[in-house]
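Final paragraph of the annual report: two paired records, presented back to back.
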Amino acid sequence: MPDELTTISRRKAFISISEELRTYLRHYGRLSGLPALYKDLESFSNSYPLMDRSGKSTLWDTVVYERTYMKDLWPKLTSIYSLLKTGDLQAVPHLYVERVDYCSFGNSKPFRIRVVNQYNDNYDHFYLKVADASRIYGLELEHVLSPNRINYLVHEDTLIEEHIAGVPGDVFIGEYFDRADVNPVRIAKEFVKFSERCFIRLLGDMRSYNYVVDMTPDFEEVQYRVRAIDFDQQSYEGRCRVYLPQFYKENLPVVNLCTRYLNLATAQQYQQEERSLIARRFLSEKSRLRAIFRAMKHHPAEPADKVAQLKHELGEHHNTLVFEECRSMGDLVEKHIEFVLGKLLGDPRHVPIPHSP
């Protein structure tokens, strides 16, 4: 049980994209010209609250555009969706935009576009957001170091993100924890692994509404995977506990579940398994990660006092002085990954293959 809960009361300042980061994005196929930008979607004429099936507010508003403006904008949005999914900017005639939603609650103030296939009524979503360097670093680290692939594109000051499917964490905690058909041990195991992934690469603000639970039917039982969906707080805050999901009050039911079903030895086993997997990904993508860290270190924009606080608190947490020479969040992320993974980043032949009972 955490002895002090974590809150983030202020919005994170936006960090501009440096030329070095743009060069990195171009090299790895993340830059692409787009027919519509974030600012084009800001020209809505009206909005109304979007409610869920039970009549509760979703914190999203559905926005309305003038008919002539909408007629020009909709094909551009379906073209962007095609580019995101197929790499081809050509608009698909049987796709149409059913709805555009806007959320002023989040840091990135995203627009969510609902695209529908008129032949079978199947729908999907994607997002337009203001491009922020720390969020892009978070997306890249998730793509490289986690078991999840991330699909996104950047053009000028606009970020396009693919929808990450899953049950929202707050909904999962409220509606699934007590169901007879779920396996609480497997759920607890995945939350331990998720927490380890977040802390190793310093991804913060993993409150229950900033991650989803992906459920995959197996031949006997359901497999679970917890996935982050918000990357605004990638290595920005100075408090160490911001990067430990168990210290958010929204996650207290998760803490209780893990305490109930996992003993310390088992939890440590799952943490070590996750570290082993992250180490394998690190070793296979070492040059790409070094390029990310260089971009982070060469153009630091985070407040110096947050860097000083975090290196001090990480040193206390791990009882070490290895972070004292760090001068930026890029330094801290790189050093923290190397420190936590330790000898697993040595000879790859010595990295153990995990087995999970």
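The closing record of the year follows.
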Amino acid sequence: MLLFNIILIIHVSAFLLYLCRLALLFPIKQPAKDKWGLPLGILILCTGIALVALKYPAVNYYKIVPKLSLFLLVGVINGIYDKRPLSRWAYYLLLGATVLAALIAVVKV
């Protein structure tokens, strides 16, 4: 249980750092990409996989599948805007997908 909680804290911290990174880019007209997105995305993915592996028999697939599809959406948008600044619609889509993934994670069903 201790390992699960440590991985969960790392996962939530990386997720909050990504959300703060997006929030700091909000006032900028065409925000430039920084180098924190890829390491944070890899950390979120690896810790998410570890959390699912540790809780395997009792996995909530109705939460995991939408969050994984939102993660793929964020990855595709970041891949499209790899070398150029984010457009406004791409920024709002990233922010919306991130907040929606957070809401899916905390909603108790």
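Helices lie at 2-24, 37-54, 61-80, 88-106. This concludes the annual technical report; the extension proposal builds directly on these records.
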